Amino acid sequence: MPRATRSSAAAAQAASNPLPANGTTSALPLEDCSVVASGTFLAFSHATLQKNLTELGAKFTKSITAATTHLVATQDDFNNDSAKVAAAKAKGLPILKIEWVEEAMKTNAHPRDDDFSHQQTSKKRPIAVVGPLTTDAGKAGDGNDAATDTKKRRTAKGTRGKATAKAPDLDAKDANLEDVKPKAEEAAPAKAEKKSASDNQVAQSADLVVPVDEFFHLSGKQGFVVYIGDDMTIYDASLNQTNASANNNKFYKVQIVVNSRKKQFFTWTRWGRVGETGQKALLGDGSLDDARIHFDKKFKDKSGLAWENRSDAPKPKKYAYIERSYDPDSEDEDAGGKKDRKKTSSTEDSEPVETAECTLSPPIRSLVELIFNAKLFNSVMASLNYDANKLPWEN
């Protein structure tokens, strides 16, 4: 029996561990990938997906950044053009199915992106499933029949309701369920898509303008707004740290601001006790790269989290990141709600209100009046050094 040598052992090991599909020789096939997930998957939670991708060498982030290389999305998110899908399309990133991850786990290799790319399926019309026109003999018609087919297809555009009504009569085995959906159901409303976005820090419109901090004028500069990145990320963070036992209630604001000509970029910070102006600083040399460095450093120092992982659970003894909505529609709805409430209250005030006579016994009545005594409540809270005007949400 021939004696095994080192070269033969190495050859056997190479045969049992083939190279990844992308041609790299790394033991971790996805180590050059930065992956973002969009939507809710049946087979994986986001935490499980992050664990599996990390074991394959990939970096998993919550939102699309300049370093992102792949987006794994559900079919619904792809069809509805979710915020992450729209950002990935704008950057030209591959948008893949979850089977891409499963294939990488199965083969321990980098699968071909093209084999698992999403295809748009919700834009088809019911007319697409109708077969070609046939002659009386059951065969496809000639050129005249093609002209008739074209004319009928044009007519179908004006009678979508009829086409939709007839679509369910097709054979269930041959009909595509996506094809028989009315066009009104294919296009999801913009507001519903915005509410389904997992990260409110992503701008939903390229026309969005986020104002700077209310005390930014103290920096001596004018004409600046909050910077929105190429991936539509809004660089505006509000942090809070509350410790009731130590009577601490502090805020920290950090923003990247840019002038109207988009030639000057700075990092603006303001911090202090909630309810007070606090201290301020304007950082950077005017370049975007330097402003990004200062922004990422300040956010990491105060929260203990990287900016890409801002949605993670707050770190102990660190500032907590406070999400806010930049949707102007929500403000309009709130304003409308306030107007409606004002109208309702004014209508109610115009009607005389009759006060019911108390039928409680004197001891019970005295107890109830003590429980609902607002002046007594305020005095007790004041004795505990509780100031309602300095709550975390004021800033």
Question: What does this protein look like?
Answer:
- The chain is built from 13 helices and ten strands.
- The protein is of the alpha/beta class and 395 residues long.
- Among the domains are: 6-116, Rossmann fold; 126-180, no CATH class; 216-322, no CATH class.
- The strands form two sheets. Strands 5, 6, 7, 8, 9 and 10 form a six-stranded antiparallel β-sheet that branches. A four-stranded parallel β-sheet has the order 2-1-3-4, with helices on both faces.
- Strand 6 and strand 7 form a beta hairpin.
- The protein is extended, with a radius of gyration of 31 Å.
- The chain starts with 5 loop residues before the first helix and ends in a 12-residue tail after the last helix.
- Mean pLDDT is 75; it is low at 13-25, 122-126, 133-143, 161-198 and 330-336.
What secondary-structure arrangement, pairings included, does this model have?
Blueprint: H1 6-16, E1 34-38, H2 46-55, E2 59-61, E3 70-73, H3 75-79, H4 83-91, E4 95-96, H5 99-107, H6 143-158, H7 160-166, H8 183-186, H9 190-196, E5 224-226, E6 236-243, E7 248-259, E8 265-273, E9 279-286, H10 288-303, E10 320-322, H11 328-350, H12 362-371, H13 374-383
Which short descriptors sum up this protein?
alpha/beta; 13 helices; Rossmann fold; six-stranded antiparallel sheet; about 400 residues; BRCT_dom_sf; Poly(ADP-ribose)pol_reg_dom_sf; four-stranded parallel sheet
Provide a concise account of the structure shown.
This protein has 13 helices and 10 strands.
